[in-house]
Amino acid sequence: MASAVENKVKNAKLVLLGDVGTGKSSIVLRFVKGQFVEFQESTIGAAFFSQTLAVNDETVKFEIWDTAGQERYHSLAPMYYRGAAAAIIVYDVTNAATFTRAKKWVQELQAQGNINTVMALAGNKADLVEARQVTAEEAQAYAQENGLFFMETSAKTAINVNDVFYEIAKRFLQAQAQQQQNTNGMILTDRAANRTTSSSSCCS
Fold it and tell me: Structural domain of residue 169, as residue ranges?
């Protein structure tokens, strides 16, 4: 019985991208440990975390790479997002420049050509209502145009943080199921083709 449950654990590499100070590390810390640190030190290079999430009768194990936002680490980013099943592109709703930068990350990921990567756009620091520079409507419109799903989050108050990861897990499993269906369809077709070709050359 235990092995049947273990078989349903799916590993998913997930990368967080975005400008320095947008709260990527705070989002991860809130999701993985349920904690918030007011003055979080900037990530150097990248930090690694893992966390499992149950979706219906399946379990997704996220292998999370929290990348540094500083420009000097940009050249390292492809090493972390290459082969990622999912990406969360984070911007700060109180800083319009980070939203512009988020769009560049989206373009960079799209240029990689992996159509199966689940991409989320997260507008963090949604609790700072008075300081807002980017409206939810503007970000939502951009996300829809570019095939991402969008949520505003607050690592400080925990608003929508778990929801973003849950939605990613759900979409990741749907994509996996779709790929499985496609693969099975191809195998069935190949078998049918093999039967027609091999029937004439029996007993050779």
Answer: 9-178
- Name the CA dihedral angle for 187, 189, 190, 193, rounded to a multiple of 10 degrees: 160
What's the whole-model pTM score?
0.82
pLDDT digits (tens, 9 = 90+) for 50-74: 899 999 889 999 999 988 766 656 7
Residue 170 burial by Cβ neighbours in a 10 Å radius (0-12, 13-18, 19+) = middle
* Length, in residues, of the chain: 204
Question: φ, ψ for residue 15 (rounded to 5)?
Answer: -120, 140
How many structural domains are present in the chain? 1
Cα-based distances in Å from 133 to 37, 122, 185 = 23, 15, 48
Q: Which two tokens stand for residue 1?
A: 């019985």
- Report the CATH number that the domain containing residue 174 is assigned in CATH: 3.40.50.300
